[in-house]
Amino acid sequence: MRAAAAATARAARGAGWLAPGLALVGLIVAYPLVRVVEWSLTDRTTFLDGSFVGLDNYRQLLSDELFWRAFTNNLILLLSVPLSIAIALVVTGVLYRGLRGGRLYELAIFVPFLPAVASIAVVFLYVLSAGGPLNELLRGAGAGALAQPWLTDADVAIWSVLGVVLWKRIGFTVLLLTARMASIDRTLLDAAAVDGAGWWRTYWQVAVPGMRGIIAFAAVLGFIEAFSWTFAYVVILTRGGPDRATYTLEYLLYRLQFDEQLVGLASAVAVFLLVAALAVAAYRVHSARREALL
Length: 294
Fold this sequence. Notes:
Distance between the termini: 41 Å
Helix content: over 70%
CATH architecture of the largest domain: Orthogonal Bundle
Strand content: under 5%
Structural class: mainly alpha
Number of helices: 14
Radius of gyration: 24 Å
Shape: flat
Largest sheet: none
CATH class of the largest domain: Mainly Alpha
CATH topology of the largest domain: MetI-like fold
């Protein structure tokens, strides 16, 4: 009896310590999410009015060509995930093998990740302009045929945005992989070298499998970024143009909310983004548990 009473008292004290934190999480996370889901089921045009319309907002989105164009553009930006990981794996292998001035190269690779997205976008707004450095470099190298109106051509603009996202993301991915490489048992690499394996074979068959966890982590972050952190790129580089060719779900949400005052539809887009992020997070948690059991 005394033991049970003591356990109950400890649980009560623990709940007391947790209560403020849980209340704060509920206030700044759970409550807004519940409200967004609620608003997505209404025809609100402001935050104060609106009536219940069920799933009409979702039906309208799924039949809207612009929604699917925005979704397709998000999938294009999602290509930055495998591309950044593939490039980062190669760069990490080169740096870890040993390179004169390697620390300087590491710094140069990581620096693009440091500035704010808005700062990077402003720089590339100039670099990718019709008379900007990139086109001038192509013309100077005798490849003027490759010069493009990178941000004003509907067929090219979203790929230009992808290039900027990729350029910024590689440095962070290299940092993650380099940190993981530092914790890999060096004797495994030395043993493979003694057996006659070359560096790159050793790297791909010994080191890379040991980085699966951090690669998965980088992939999850990249997915969330491709769907939820690209607004600044789009609004500064293209403002969704030309002819709405670079709309993403984030930018569509912004236009529905602040330009067209369609709170219900904007909330439905937000719920779609939330579900996508939760699905990826849930898959990663499931994969991590399965790997732990192996």
